[in-house]
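Quality-control log, excerpt.
Job 1 of 2 completed; input and output follow.
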Amino acid sequence: MPDRLGQERDKKRSKTLLTIAGVLVALNVLIFLFVPTQRSISYDEDAVIYSVSDESYEKPCHVTLEGTLTQSVLLKDSFYGTLYVTDVPGMDEAMTLRLTRQNGAWEGYLYDWAGQILATGVWDVEATKDFEHVTIAFATTYERTGSQVQASFDRGSATFLSLGAPNRAYALRQLQELILKQN
């Protein structure tokens, strides 16, 4: 009889521990689904602007990209930060960059301090999902007439940079991936 009571107590304790473990697993899954993760992204480095059509074109510049990458299972991933590239038309200072991940590509705009969308020499910013590789394509034409700004992009004569790219071939491959994601 005493042995039977000990076994029943052990079964009850096992059930209780199993229930607690199940609740903890369910709670972890819920937290994973509903609580987004945030990570700081920071690039402050020298880079080279390359041209698609001219293999000898190399223009040194400095890129500062800082912001917060927010990733969520249920919501769209987003990036909110600032971007500054030296010697790019229309970028006299760091601009606010807001991107949202849609259909496997980042989409968004550069904004001024008042929240107005800007037309600058930066045509597009693309990155891997975790911002490990960042590619920036520049407008092929940029004209300012008074308060009017016009910018256009031609893939055949585009200029671009890829942060961390060791050479033109690698940067060009990153640009091609950017263009493929947009189609």
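Job 2 of 2 completed; input and output follow.
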Amino acid sequence: MNIHQWRKSTYSGDSSNCVEIATAPAKILVRDSKAPTGSRLAFPRTVWADFVHHTAKSRVASD
């Protein structure tokens, strides 16, 4: 039974070459969309927030 709501970016479209994320208490889970029952990474929410912030910042800088 999968208790997490997994989602991927709308930029991914119907592609299966993506990562998916889910929220859990105190952490963000990340998995490969091609292997939904495979290994997962877990990041503290603060680390994930820093990653998203810096990724968005570098994307704006490159536009």
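Post-run check on job 2. The chain has a mean pLDDT of 87.
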